Amino acid sequence: MQIIKITNDKQIPSIYTKTPISELISYQNLNAELKGYNSAELFIGMCMDNRKQLRIPENFAYIIRTGGANLRYSEFKVSYAIAIGGVKYIALIAHDNCGMVNLISKKANFIDGLCRNANWDRKRAEEHFMNYAPMFEIDNEVEFVVNESKRLSEKYLGVQVVPLLYTIEDNMLSIILE
C-alpha cells in the first residue's frame, strides 16, 4: 500500500481531479477557498474521534462519524445519501492512533468509566463491552479503511469509494493507494 500525503494539487492522482475527493483534499490540506454548495457532493465516513476536524463548506457532504470509520452498521444511511442525495463519491477517512485499534486493551478502563460516569454496575458494563467490542475493534487503521472501501465499492458499484488517512499531528489527509 502507498500512502500519499497531499501537499500540493499536482500530487492528487488524476483519477480524482475535478471530483469531490480532490475538493475535499484541497479544502483540508491546501486551504482552498470554500465554495457554496446547494446540495451534497460527497459522503464522508470518518471516525468519531474528537481530535479530527474537517475544513469543508456547508452543504458539501453528508457525514457519519463512527468508531474507526466503520460503516457496517450505518449502511442504510449511506444508501440514503446515494439514493436520495445523489452522491457518487464516498471518502472513507481513517486516522492514525485510532482508539478502536486494540480495543480489548481498553476493557478495564471502559468498564471503570461506565461504572464511574454512567453509574452502571460492573457486570452490566462488562457485558456491554464484551457484546460490542468485537463488532467495532479493528487491527490496523489503514488496512481496515482499505478493506471497508473495497466492501462498499462492491455494494455500490456506481459510486467511487476512496480510502483516506487523516494524520492527527498535522490535520492532513493522505490518499491510500494499493
How would you sum up this structure, described in words?
This protein has a six-stranded mixed β-sheet, sandwiched between helices. The protein starts with a strand and ends with a strand. The chain has helices at 20-29, 75-83, 107-118, 122-136, 141-155; strands spanning 2-5, 42-46, 61-65, 89-95, 160-167, 172-177. Strand 5 and strand 6 form a beta hairpin. It is α/β, with parallel strands linked by helices and 178 residues long. Helices cover 34% and strands 20% of the residues.
Keywords:
20% strand, 34% helix, globular, 178 residues, alpha/beta, Beta-carbonic Anhydrase, Chain A
List the helices and strands and how they pair.
Layout (H helix, E strand, L loop, with lengths): L1 E4 L14 H10 L12 E5 L14 E5 L9 H9 L5 E7 L11 H12 L3 H15 L4 H15 L4 E8 L4 E6 L1
Parallel strand pairs: 2-3, 2-4, 4-5
Antiparallel strand pairs: 1-6, 5-6
Helix pairs in contact: 3-4
Number of helices: 5
Specify the CATH class of the largest domain.
Alpha Beta
- What is the helical fraction, as a range of percent? 25-40%
- Beta-strand portion reads 15-25%
Low-pLDDT windows of residues: none
Give the biggest beta sheet.
6 strands, mixed
Per DSSP E runs of 2 or more residues, the count of β-strands stands at 6
What is the strand arrangement across the widest sheet?
Answer: 1-6-5-4-2-3
Distance between the termini: 4 Å
SSE order, as H and E? EHEEHEHHHEE
Short description:
The protein has helices spanning 20-29, 75-83, 107-118, 122-136, 141-155; strands at residues 2-5, 42-46, 61-65, 89-95, 160-167, 172-177.
